[in-house]
């Protein structure tokens, strides 16, 4: 994967078990999500939006096997290093057995949190990792941080229907953000509407179909 996707060069492996899980709506690993982010990166390039939206490698962020909190914050700061004014970054985060999406605007020091279970913020550990990443980024740029970094919990997002849907849901969240040229996801999901937002199986299948067509290019 070219370094413009995650800010680093990396090889990405996708295992047969992950492909089977995606086909059967089961649980799959971050490798599937990374390949979808590569696809979305190409969508952004075609739309000339690469400087508006960036991605962070989830294998550098997770609660398990991704280093201590300081190491993860430093990785975030390095990824933000070349951020354009107003650019947002999408951070898929696995707290152990559950995927969530965090969207960060480091320039405005604003963080948007999306949990497919529509839970409240997940606690001090992840919040500190992201906030310290922004503070380190500001220090590198000789810019002072605001006293309190702003977190916004997107309580209006659709809620997953089973205990295995979280990964496909955050992929769908990323799809909708990338396809919105005005990046108005916050105004859409910040509050619960009178009409409950839901994802149908057709909505989720649209993500799986795009993923399959994209990955097949590497096998033909």
Automatic annotation (TrEMBL):
<dbReference type="GO" id="GO:0006508">
    <property type="term" value="P:proteolysis"/>
</dbReference>
<keyword id="KW-1133">Transmembrane helix</keyword>
<dbReference type="InterPro" id="IPR038765">
    <property type="entry name" value="Papain-like_cys_pep_sf"/>
</dbReference>
<keyword id="KW-0812">Transmembrane</keyword>
<dbReference type="InterPro" id="IPR003653">
    <property type="entry name" value="Peptidase_C48_C"/>
</dbReference>
<keyword id="KW-0645">Protease</keyword>
<keyword id="KW-0472">Membrane</keyword>
<feature type="domain" description="Ubiquitin-like protease family profile">
    <location>
        <begin position="12"/>
        <end position="177"/>
    </location>
</feature>
<dbReference type="GO" id="GO:0008234">
    <property type="term" value="F:cysteine-type peptidase activity"/>
</dbReference>
<dbReference type="Pfam" id="PF02902">
    <property type="entry name" value="Peptidase_C48"/>
</dbReference>
<feature type="transmembrane region" description="Helical">
    <location>
        <begin position="19"/>
        <end position="40"/>
    </location>
</feature>
<keyword id="KW-0378">Hydrolase</keyword>
<comment type="similarity">
    <text>Belongs to the peptidase C48 family.</text>
</comment>
<protein>
    <submittedName>
        <fullName>Putative Ulp1 protease family catalytic domain-containing protein</fullName>
    </submittedName>
</protein>
């Amino acid at each position: 994967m070219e370094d413009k996707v995650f800010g680093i060069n990396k090889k990405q492996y996708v295992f047969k078990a992950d492909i089977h899980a995606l086909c059967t709506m089961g649980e799959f690993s971050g490798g599937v999500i990374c390949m979808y982010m590569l696809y979305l990166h190409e969508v952004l390039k075609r739309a000339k939006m690469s400087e508006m939206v960036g991605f962070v490698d989830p294998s550098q962020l997770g609660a398990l096997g991704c280093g201590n909190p300081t190491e993860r914050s430093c990785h975030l700061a390095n990824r933000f290093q070349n951020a354009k004014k107003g650019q947002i970054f999408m951070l898929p985060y696995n707290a152990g057995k559950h995927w969530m999406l965090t969207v960060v605007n480091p320039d405005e020091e604003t963080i948007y949190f999306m949990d497919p279970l529509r839970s409240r913020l997940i606690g001090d550990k992840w919040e500190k990792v992201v906030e310290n990443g922004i503070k380190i980024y500001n220090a590198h740029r000789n810019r002072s941080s605001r006293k309190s970094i702003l977190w916004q919990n997107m309580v209006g997002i659709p809620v997953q229907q089973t205990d295995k849907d979280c990964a496909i849901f955050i992929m769908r969240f990323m799809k909708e953000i990338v396809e919105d040229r005005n990046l108005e996801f916050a105004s859409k999901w910040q509050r619960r509407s009178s009409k409950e937002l839901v994802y149908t199986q057709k909505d989720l299948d649209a993500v799986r179909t795009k993923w399959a067509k994209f990955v097949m290019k590497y096998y033909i």
